[in-house]
Task: structure prediction
Amino acid sequence: MQIIGAIIIGLIAGIIAKLLMPGRDPGGFIVTILLGIAGAWVATMLGRAVGWYSPGDAAGFIGAVLGAIVILAIYRMVVGRRERG
Result:
C-alpha cells in the first residue's frame, strides 16, 4: 500500500511541479510520476541530512513538490543540453 501511496503522491507532486514551472517538457504521464517520486525522495534525503526528519520520517507533500521542482529543473537542463549539442 505504501508503494501505491508513493505513486499517487508522486503523480500529484509532479503535476503541480509542472504547473508551477511552465514550459514544454518532453515526457508524459510516466515521467511526471517519476519526477514526483524522485522529488519526494530528494526532499526526504535533504531533510534527513539537515535534521528536519528522523530516519523513519518522509517528506511532506510540500517537500515532495519542492523536490519535484528541483528535479524538473535539473531534467530540463540535461535534456536542453542534449537537444542543443
Summary: The mean pLDDT is 77. Helices lie at 2-20, 29-50, 61-84. The first helix runs from residue 2 to 20. The chain has three helices and no strands.
